[in-house]
């Protein structure tokens, strides 16, 4: 299974050395990284059986996007506009 970042389009890889989720710089995912991705998702699902696999994948994508700097600020003080 290959998980791709929506914003950058790059493949997400498990960072074995750092223990976190990272983005492969070239967009190429090796077989070892693919296995690490599956193992990471499987561990999360095993620890949280009430979560959908797709939800876990979206969380991992969000973490990778944030780590890659694809973030923006959100102003919580702005009041909601009336409908």
**Poorly predicted parts:** 13-24
Strand order, largest beta sheet: 1-2
Instruction: Report the structural category.
Output: alpha+beta
Continuous helix count: 2
Which shape, going by the Cα principal axes?
flat
* Rg estimate, integer Å: 15 Å
N- and C-termini, Cα separation: 42 Å
**Helix content estimate:** 25-40%
Mean pLDDT, as a whole number?
Answer: 73
Order of helices and strands: EEHH
Q: Please outline the major beta sheet.
A: 2 strands, antiparallel
Q: How many independent structural domains?
A: 1
Strand content: 5-15%
The total of beta strands comes to: 2
What characteristics describe this protein?
83 residues, alpha+beta, 10% strand, single chain
Notes on the structure:
The protein is α+β, with helices and mostly antiparallel strands and 83 residues long. The protein has one domain (1-83). Helices cover 39% and strands 10% of the residues. It contains two helices and two strands. It has helices at 31-47, 53-67, and strands at 12-15, 20-23. A two-stranded antiparallel sheet has the order 1-2. A hairpin with a 4-residue loop joins strand 1 (12-15) and strand 2. The longest helix has 17 residues, at 31-47. The protein is flat and about 50 Å long. The protein starts with 11 loop residues before the first strand and ends in a 16-residue tail after the last helix. The model is unreliable at 13-24 (pLDDT under 50).
């Amino acid at each position: 299974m290959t998980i791709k970042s929506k914003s950058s389009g790059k493949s997400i890889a498990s960072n074995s050395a750092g223990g976190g989720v990272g983005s492969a710089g070239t967009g190429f995912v090796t077989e070892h990284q693919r296995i690490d991705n599956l193992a990471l998702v499987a561990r999360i699902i095993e620890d949280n059986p009430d979560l959908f696999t797709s939800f876990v994948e979206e969380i991992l994508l969000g973490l990778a996007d944030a780590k890659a700097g694809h973030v923006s600020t959100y102003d919580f003080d702005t009041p909601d506009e009336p409908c």
